[in-house]
Amino acid sequence: MTTDRTARTLDPTYAIARRRFLDAAGRSGADVSTFIHPSAGLEGEDLAIDVAQLGDDAAASVLLIVSATHGVEGYAGSALQSWWLDERAADLDLGRTRVVMIHGFNPVGFSWVRRVNEDNVDLNRNFVDWASPPTNAEYGEIADLLVPSTWSDDAQASTTTALLEVAGEIGLDRFQQVVSGGQYDHPTGIFYGGTGPVWSNEWLHRHLAGLVEPATRLGVIDLHTGLGDWGHGELISHEQVGDPGYDRGTAWWGEVRSMLDGESVSAALSGDWLGAVDAMVPGVEVTSAALEFGTVDVISVLQSLRADAWLHGFGDPTGPDAPAIRAQVRAAFADDDPIWLATIIRRFDDVASSAFGALGT
What we know:
Strand order of the largest sheet: 1-2-4-3-5-8-6-7
Number of helices: 12
Number of strands: 8
Strand content: 15-25%
Largest sheet: 8 strands, mixed
Oligomer: single chain
Structural class: alpha/beta
């Protein structure tokens, strides 16, 4: 196999990315399971979560690598998974550690070039205690500014100016927390966590334990884009400094940043799925991190999400405004510059190799 990383590019559609992943899984000898989603894709194509597994079923450890928790971010995540299957799978001793890849965790967002799912739900805000869901009253104070009912040039300009004024008043860190930490009362808004478990959430609860058993150690890398410096891959922990999982992560990878302690480019999230894994696999030692790759500036990312939420909440997702907004979202989360992809491949290779090595000891 070629190791010329710069020759690779991101795929233009979900269907092509999925086919590349399945082909790479087939070449590597992986066992593949497919779970069809009930919704259709942007081009009418079937949508699915595909799972590729390599290694001994009785292995004591599992390395789990996940793409498209936030759909559009799957363009990069899928490329990294396919690269690994082509370039690394054949060279590893898979006797002690099994590798499991979940491709297209949120296939609807992946296909429709959205961060959210079929319900406008941010999957990484959906894993909460639904008997007592979180509240975010401050989001409600700016909800109509974030996603206005019209998206004219004047509306964009006036609401953006008002939002920047709010950010100036409360500070950028607090503004990021209010906007992106998760909200549960505004279904056409951004970073909406829903009113109950969505399809992908239920799928993970049904299947994760079976994918991990009988292993007693689990490493998880959840692939993300959109925050941080261009091409930089920050490892983000949902745990606090000093927690056992956080300490294991630093032993594996070196620098890991806690979103709870304010170290990370990410706000502290409510309902992130990595925080729910321990309860799904009791008795398993879990070491996990989100690997977040920077793309464009945070304002451009926010503007793309606002436009997308308006399109699906108040506009026409198949109308004349849709292609330009989808292109805006893709540009915010998937850089088509081959140098960017080569850069994130190098970082992913280091992170995955370190995790694999630590799990095999």
